[in-house]
Amino acid sequence: MTRLFAGTQFDRPPECDRCGRLEEECECPPPEPEPPTYLAPHKQTARLAVEKRKRGKMVTVIRGLAAEDNDLSAMLTKLKTSCGAGGTLQEDSIEIQGRHLDRLRVELKAMGYHVKG
Ligand SMILES: [Zn+2]
What we know:
This protein is of the alpha+beta class.
């Protein structure tokens, strides 16, 4: 009887890429995580907008900064402190509660970003 996965990677016990030993015998240290490579702020443009959310709450939204190019969670923490307001990280934007256009413009420019809005 021919095994379905004969000759494929599914047929072999897992081996370490680095030492070639079976994974259960491998003593290699765990791989270092790659340091994130962020894009220089001066190559990016943050777009600011004040928008209304449910129950009439106003938020200031920062768009145009991709999560893979920026440490958005660190930025959110800094901006919340600077504005003295709450905020959340969205999929493709940062939202700070309240109207903070002027403050955020100053902060983002100080970080080196171009700012529109
Ligand atoms: Zn190994």
